[in-house]
Amino acid sequence: MYHLVVFFLCHYLNIKFNLAHVTRPTPGESSTSASSRYQPLLPRIQSRVITPSNFTMAAVIKAINAKIRSNSVLDYVCSTHFWGPVSNFGIPVAAVMDTQKDAEIISGPMTGALVVYAATFMRYSLAITPKNYLLFACHLTNFGAQTTQGFRYLNYWKWGGREKQLAEQAAKGGAAAEAGA
User: Fold this and answer.
1) What angle do CA 71, 75, 81 make, to 5 degrees?
2) Can you give the pTM of this predicted structure?
3) CA separation, residue 166 to residues 67, 104, 106, 161 (Å)
4) How many CB atoms neighbour CB 151 within 10 A?
């Protein structure tokens, strides 16, 4: 079963199994001179062709890696420049979803820490070489969502939003009591 998986993976990635350059020595020729004919080709062959002499899992992984790295889109998708921001996008997505919840549950210190974190790593994503614009977008989104949450926290706890909400609830409760009586 394992060999079928490797075969189909190699077939999908267009890695060829080349048995043509593996020859038996002719009479009078030593086995080392037969393999030395192909020595200049070996670095190029080993990255794309799997032969019986190098058919190990390491050779398969090396061939798959060479195939992936030869395509610029696949090379980017298989890098930490892509997967770091993608996995980090959970934080801004959660922050954006939290903007729909009640402001009473917002933690001010945590929101402040996340604003500082997002601002720091927005700067970091542009300071590294090469610049990681996907990471910048992730932290920009997080910065915006956390700033919104910070404003909601301040409005609710410091600028009278809680009292206003309680007064509205009391007015609705009084109106409901009058309608029921």
Assistant:
1) 155
2) 0.57
3) 63, 12, 17, 9
4) 14
